[in-house]
Amino acid sequence: MSTSLLTQLADALRSGAVKVVDLTQPLGPDTPVIDLPPIFAASPGFSSEVISRYDDKGPAWYWNTIRLGEHTGTHFDAPVHWITGAQLPDNTLDKIPARKLVGPACVIDCSREAAADNDFLLTPEFVLAWEEQHGKIPPGAWVLMRTDWSKRQGRDAFLNMREDGSHTPGFTPDCVRFLAFERDVLGVGVECVGTDAGQAATFDPPFPAHNIMQGSGRFGLASLANLDQLPPTGAIVIAAPLKIVDGSGSPLRVLALVG
Q: How confident is the model at residue 2 (pLDDT cuts 50, 70, 90)?
């Protein structure tokens, strides 16, 4: 990329010709965390404690300690997060090349389908129909599944738990394979608490968005917001997690550049 092109980008950002869209949910004590069966260790929610706030402990500065699981709020799934990616090279947050954190966005609008069916699953056929309208998904793209799930208010509505578990939209196993191996995507992003459908424990393989995406060295973005502000194609997504040594994931602020 030439200096002049970067200068043009800087000018476009300053003028507003290129808009920055925040795809991140606010992170706080009320941020929902995924529910696991009680036989498994649970991730804590977000909490913070003041270290000092312009007081005797620090007269001129304010800061906090924070405690949370790596996969809390809008967060990034690294390959090492799932057992299928445990032995891959460059599979932790501190080893992922920075260039892989930036890519074009393909936003597949499933909001109407998800509103009609909370268990809606994206299929290869749905993706192919989208490509007929918007062009083929390029290698190295983020595929973002727009469901408008982020507009749900409150933990109960967001997690949508019933006696048999959560009911949220996601991907079929065949769709994940298609995106990973036939379209060579960077990863997938969703508006729900995790990249897999709420009932994905019953799929073959179970939790395919984790099993296949992380197992093939790709990434996941969960609890995204404002996907309705992105065009189907043309945006650039920057998804840079904290560079945690041996980290499996991290909350992050996901930004999209939209021309």
A: low
Is residue 81 annotated as a catalytic residue, yes or no?
yes
Residue 15 is predicted with a pLDDT of 97
Q: What is the pLDDT of residues 210-243, one digit of tens each?
A: 999 999 999 999 999 999 999 999 999 999 999 9
Task: Out of 81, 134, 167, 210, pick the active-site residue.
Answer: 81
CA 92 – CA 78 distance, rounded (Å): 6
User: Model pTM?
Assistant: 0.96
The answer on pLDDT for 1 being more than 90 is: no
